[in-house]
Amino acid sequence: MTSAAEQPDPVDFRYDAELAGRIETKWQQRWQENRTFAAPNPVGDLTEVPRGVRAADLEPVYLMDMFPYPSGKGLHVGHPLGYLAVDVYARFNRMLGKNVMHSLGYDAFGLPAEQYAVQTGQHPRVTTEENIANMRRQLRRLGLGHDDARTFATTDPEFVKWTQWIFLQIFDSWYDPEARDGQGGARPISELVAQFEAGRDTGTGSPWSELDAAAREAVLQQHRLAYISEAPVNWCPGLGTVLANEEVTAEGRSERGNFPVYTRRLKQWNMRITAYADRLADDLDTVEWPAAVKHMQRHWIGRSTGAVLAFDGPGGLPLEVYTTRPDTLFGATSLVLSPEHPLVDAVTAESYAADVPESWRGGAATPAEAVAAYQQRAARLTPVERQESREKSGVFTGTSVTNPATGESMPVFVADYVLMGYGTGAVMGVPAEDQRDWDFARAFGLPYIRTVQPAEGHDEDSAYTGEGAKINSRNAEIDLDGSSVDEAKDRMLAWLEGKGLARATTQYRLRDWLFSRQRYWGEPFPIVYDEAGTPIALPADQLPVDLPEVPDFSPRTFDADDLDSEPEPPLGRNADWVNVTLDLGDGPKVYRRETNTMPNWAGSSWYQLRYADPHNAEKLVDPANEAYWLGPDAPGESGGVDLYVGGVEHAVLHLLYARFWHKVLFDLGHVSSFEPFHRLINQGYIQAYAFTDERGAYVPAEEVEERVEGSESTFWYEGKQVSREYGKMGKSLKNMVTPDQMYAEYGADTFRVYEMSMGPLEQSRAWETRAVSGAQRFLQRVWRLVVDEATGASRVTEEPADDATRAVLHRTIAGVREDMEHLRFNTAIAKLIVLTNHLTKVGVAPREVIEPLTVMLAPLAPHLGEEIWELLGHTGTITYVPFPVHDERYLVPDTVTCVVQVKGKVRERLEVAPDIAADELEALALASKGAQRSLNGARVRKVIVRAPKLVNIVPDA
Question: Whole-angstrom Cα distance, residue 940 to residue 401?
């Protein structure tokens, strides 16, 4: 046994925040100097690591966090939850002998830095780099075991180069439905050109050989996976930019500045993600993702099988309607077009008949005036507003069509509850079977005809959308009455197809990805335009295209109501950059650069590949490194990152875009995996109480006093009672707690253990600073098992442990290993507390128990684990020490069932040892799944323990 005088780097002897801070900064420095967490690659500059292992000899495990945006506000205690969980899991897997790649980059392009630049004139890069430095400091102090050689920011020129390179691969590709043995996939655009040269129809009426360069590009634009088109966008003249949907309020105004937002058709870059709709939906079956996220993605894709019905419009003009319920045609009493429908003008009559109700005319004298005014009003609303409003509006076009099933006339309206983004932009109004159609029919006095027998007790003053027998659904040629809905759909479609009035089709809610932003702080497009306005891809050797210096970082703004205004992005202000002389194969010519920038989704759509080969200047990723880290384990498997952890708020857009880019790269042969992320976990949120005074103003949460009288709690600030609310944590709510505060008051290891002990990773939980001390007391007990606080001498003995202690140890090893494997860190901590309490109770610290306890604790409290490991006489890092293996002889099967109640109701049953101590049983009960689920983040007022058979938990009211 080593004496106190021989201990390396002795420290003061009570484990408090000051001692924890010294221990933590010591080991963080040592980890950095020794590159402790470096993971070797099969090839390239990262093949060699200080510990001398080779990638080929180790099983790879690739772990990823959704990387952060470097905000100027820094982190609060809720942000690191996912980072901590992945770090604990990474450290555990290193102890299993695996080659763990875990690093962290920064999603550094974004609007906040640009807004700050507009306000202050400071370049966004300066602000971004300052924020990254601060966030790196906060995360380093947390003790995260990242491989620093693999970190990057999306603003790094080398990263921008490959983002632009991927864009060019997509631009120079088309979706060939015959590729991949008929499964469909991206192919180089040169193959399509070869088909046109061989005689494929160009769709222009002229052969390829007779088209000039501009006309040929116009043909290719109809096929390219990245293309330019006029698209409906949220245009905000007051800000001078197009806004994403999430940047528009429910009132149809800009989130920033509260300016009106209009729907305009503007020329924008798009990604043809719709070509991948089926694969994006079907391949969800190949990944291990939460069912809720899969559901959200499938809902966003919105695949439905139905029929396109053609109604005869004026002069035989076909008005096509998509419906999933052709059987309801007998109940259709109107035809409704979106205000943006391209045929609105064609179907609008010159005048209204004398008997047209005033409520149909929109207060206008003619249909043209009514429609034009209505289109302008609709342009001010967001798609969400248009669909969610129960107050239906619209105007009559003055035209009617005939219902082919009933022979009745159907008026044609324009109404904003119909969107161009789904189906054909036109619907047949079936009031009795669709609530939105019902609301519209009620507003305009249209009749309704039920075609499905409602269930008994159905409110007659509402649509019926359930199952039932068909009624009122027959004519001289077809009789659907009495049949089921499914049977009726098939028979009606067959009848309509036989008459040439319909065709079966599959439609999608998914729209192509709008890829242009009128901003400065984003990736420039690697595109120039010739004198004819034809887009031309820059060669790869001219990448990256860097952002120019500009005199003003903000786009040109206009009068808030100037609907005729056009975007003028900040990049357009540098004429020397915009107008550039290049030799692209035809001699030097003057070209015009694209002045839009890419959206902030671009970098996060491929960053999983950069971690695998972060310094490769010649290839996006070396095939050997990609196959090692992301390749499928067996034929037919998706491959991808082994575990990806992040918030559920990215369930649709980021994940959908990343999957799309990854699949294009797979089709083109650049990667071997066809999904970017094989397993996904969404961590819960850390929420907190906030307090408001009588004015509704927030007061500092840490200064609020709780007063308890009987079972009632009240809350007071500066002598006045305040109201408590529960929700998110943030600066504006004055309830923000930062990691820096936790480091100063408790130390990083205590903070880590507290966050991991709060509940299952996927569940949200309530932050309570006062409860952090419980995690600190646990670590202090571990420390006191090893170190005499009075003298600093070691308390570890070489004497063997007794059988009772060995039984507790090996039950703990078995349980903690299983919990770690399944990321149940809260229950792992509960088991370690049980073992620690047992050792404290018996008053001995045998090395044969302390060493495995230290190894099991190290993933959760790595600094303390390293320090104790060194105090035990070991010279190397604990990082790669094998995780303990239990001895089956000590796993005694004799147990009793303990009932865990919350508010008197049974929520869990635990199998425990008959002689389990009350405090040990309490810890297990509080950590159990049933208790955590029932508590749902609520604080615990008291716990009643009747060991070994009952625990009753009383939550805070």
Answer: 66
Decide the pairing of beta strands 588-593 and 643-646. unpaired
- Cα angle value 924/926/927 (rounded, 5°): 65
389-400 tens-digit pLDDT: 668 999 999 999
Give me the DSSP letters along 836-847.
Answer: HHHHHHHT--BH
What end-to-end distance do the CA atoms of the chain give, in Å? 52
Q: Distance of CA 478 to CAs 333, 481, 764, Å?
A: 19, 9, 56
Helix count and strand count (H, E) for the chain: 30, 31
Burial label, 178 (beta-carbon count in 10 A; 0-12, 13-18, 19+): exposed
> Residue 251 pLDDT more than 80?
no
What are the phi and psi torsion angles at 196 (to 5°)? -65, -40
Averaged pLDDT for residues 923-952: 93
Report the mean per-residue pLDDT for the chain.
Answer: 92
DSSP secondary-structure letter at 717?
A: E
Q: Which of 244, 249, 152, 778 is nearest to 519 (CA)?
A: 244
- pLDDT value of residue 4: 41
Task: Report how far residue 817's alpha carbon sits from residue 755's, in angstroms, rounded to the nearest whole number.
Answer: 19
Q: What is the pTM of this model?
A: 0.84
Torsion of CA 224, 228, 232, 237, to 10 degrees: 150
CB 128 within 8 A of CB 630: no
Whether the predicted pLDDT of 495 surpasses 90? yes
pLDDT at 387 over 80: no
- Higher-confidence position of 4 and 681: 681
Written as six digits, the tokens of 421 are 């983004």
